[in-house]
Amino acid sequence: MGKMAFVFPGQGAQAVGMGKDVYDALPESRAVFDKGDEVLGFPLSKLVFEGPDSDLKQTVNTQPALLTASVAYLKALRGLGVKPDYVAGHSLGEYSALVAASVLSYEDAVRLVRLRGRFMEEAVPGGQGAMAAVLGAEREALAELCRSISEESGLVELANVNCPGQIVVSGSQAGVESVVQRVKEAGGKRAIPLEVSGPFHSSLMKEAAERLAAELKNITFNAPSVPVVVNVTAAPVSDPEEIRELLVRQVYSPVLWQDSVERMISEGVDTFVEIGSGSVLTGLIRKIDKSVKFVNINSLESAQTSW
Questions:
Q1: Considering 170, 201, 253, 302, which one is annotated as catalytic?
Q2: What would the pLDDT profile of 27-50 be if each residue is shown by its tens digit?
Q3: How far apart are CA 292 and CA 282, in angstroms?
Q4: Which of 45, 91, 197, 277 is labelled catalytic?
Q5: pTM for this one?
Q6: Is 91 a catalytic residue?
Q7: Going by DSSP bridges, is the β-strand pair 166-172/156-163 parallel, antiparallel, or unpaired?
Q8: How far apart are CA 300 and CA 306, in angstroms?
Q9: How many CB atoms are located within 10 Å of the residue 200 CB?
Q10: Catalytic site residue 148?
């Protein structure tokens, strides 16, 4: 019998109103949002349910908002007795995965991602960093192009290896602009600049990582109840101390999403359950291997009708 993985989306998947249906219907999901408001000391739930979108899009708000919505939907699924064999999350989504695997408490995770968002926003002054999605390029060729541009005009690195034909680059404004102009040299069709508040998952985020490391020292990490396939290594990790260290590295290292999905499939996973807002990861996984099964839990109805 095949195995099941729970996967959790990262920044960019947020939407005003996410989680409102489970908040209204299920006490255990409502408790997640209420706890988030209490821990953070401001009405996060009001921002998530009512917007405005411009405020929800700020990294410092997006990160706790998405985590909270994902955990609220996770509670709906838990109530049906559904359990995964593996968990993984895309960037910020890794924190939702760690809550799902009982490595972190929701309270610690929501506090951490609020800080993580702030540290990432503050690491590089506005306008100095950038990111772009490159379509159609080969990974090695793009990595080589990034290396030569980094020497010539400004740092740029691979940030998210999402699926075949979609890789995000990150770094200095000049470096990313050069990739956008020279994308065809790596066999790419085009590159689309992203609306982000910093050069995430590049070595320009080292300062943010150091600040996060100081916060992570004070947090209890438990042994995971199921293996967590992490972004930095695309391998299952079960040692809590290693998970702590990898969360620090994750801030400035590429998200190896394609490799993570391929690893889970090689371990026997044939069903991916995306839990949270939207269906970004389902789209990426479909491009990696369309033979696996997909379930999207992004509404109360989808949670109740999928099982």
A1: 201
A2: 999 999 999 999 999 999 999 999
A3: 10
A4: 91
A5: 0.97
A6: yes
A7: antiparallel
A8: 10
A9: 28
A10: no
